[in-house]
Amino acid sequence: MNLDIVTLFPESFDWFRSQRHVVNALAAGSTLTTINPRDHTPLSGRQVDDAPFGGGAGMVLRVDVMDAALQAHYSVDPVELRRRRRIVALSPAGRLLDEALVSEFAGAPELTLLCGRYEGFDERIVEHFASDVVSIGRYVLSGGELAAMVLADAVFRKLPGALGHADSSIEESYSDALDGQPEYPQYTRPAEYRGWRVPDVLLGGHHAEIRRWRRERARERAT
Ligand code: 6GU
Questions:
Q1: Is residue 208 situated within a structural domain?
Q2: Is 133 touching ligand 1 by the criterion CB < 6 Å?
Q3: What's the CA-to-centroid distance between 146 and ligand 1, angstroms?
Q4: 61-75: per-residue pLDDT in tens?
Q5: Which of 5, 72, 111, 193 is deepest in the core (most CB within 10 A)?
């Protein structure tokens, strides 16, 4: 996966880049590249945003600046670019991200995420440069960076090798339906805490019984 993120705050991805599953994915050949529109703006004073036409609070990321940034990085007209790769604009007004959409993105060889800031993007960025508009929930964040990290985290953990050997060896006991997440309750030591006991079946070592118990608990949770 070659993941590019267009952001005015590339340093906000430093922590994300250090996460183990991301480190593993990068070691296995994936890439994570940030592109800062400020480095490519045709405007003076490294300007990237402007006041909204019609008035209102906040600033809007300019379409000419996004055009220049994409053009500079990909050496192709962004209008053409979105026919060649998924260009995802992160916006609270977008399609809700779910596991199916994550899987779709994880299956793409290349992905570009556009982070808006301030009051968001000039709508022409979304209309003419983006192939998808995605939201991570019905609430408003102050920028697309956190949403991009949520999307990137969910995508990277699906890539082969991202979760490492230890995790893949226990994959069989995990549900396909939830993409590697156990849907049954998990417990660890201590076996009893403040009188709260771990279910006996999990302490017994009878693997067939444990499997059955987990299947039943998973079924309960699904309903
Ligand atoms: Cl993708 N962006 C912003 N700014 N806020 C959001 C969001 C995205 N998804 C939910 N809230």
A1: yes
A2: no
A3: 8
A4: 999 999 999 999 999
A5: 5
172: Cβ contacts below 8 Å, ≥ 6 apart:
none
CATH of the domain at 70: 3.40.1280.10
Q: Which atom of ligand 1 is nearest to the CA of 147?
A: 1
Q: Is the C-beta atom of 92 inside 6 A of ligand 1?
A: yes
Per the structure, the count of domains in the chain is: 2
Rounded to the nearest angstrom, the distance between the alpha carbon of 144 and the centre of ligand 1 is 6
Q: Which tens digit of pLDDT belongs to each residue from 115-145?
A: 987 678 999 999 999 999 999 999 999 899 9
Residue at which a domain ends, from 156, 186, 210: 156
What's the half-sphere exposure (Cβ side, CA atoms, 13 Å) at 90? 27
Does residue 168 lie within any of the structural domains? no
- The residue range of the domain holding 209 is 176-222
Q: How far is CA 111 from CA 10, 74, 92, 126, 175, in A?
A: 17, 12, 19, 15, 27
d(CA 77, ligand 1 centre) in Å: 26
Residue 189 sits in the same domain as residue 147 = no
- Examine the domain organization and report whether 128 and 89 are in the same domain: yes
Distance CA 56, CA 67 (A): 24
Q: For residue 165, is it within any domain?
A: no
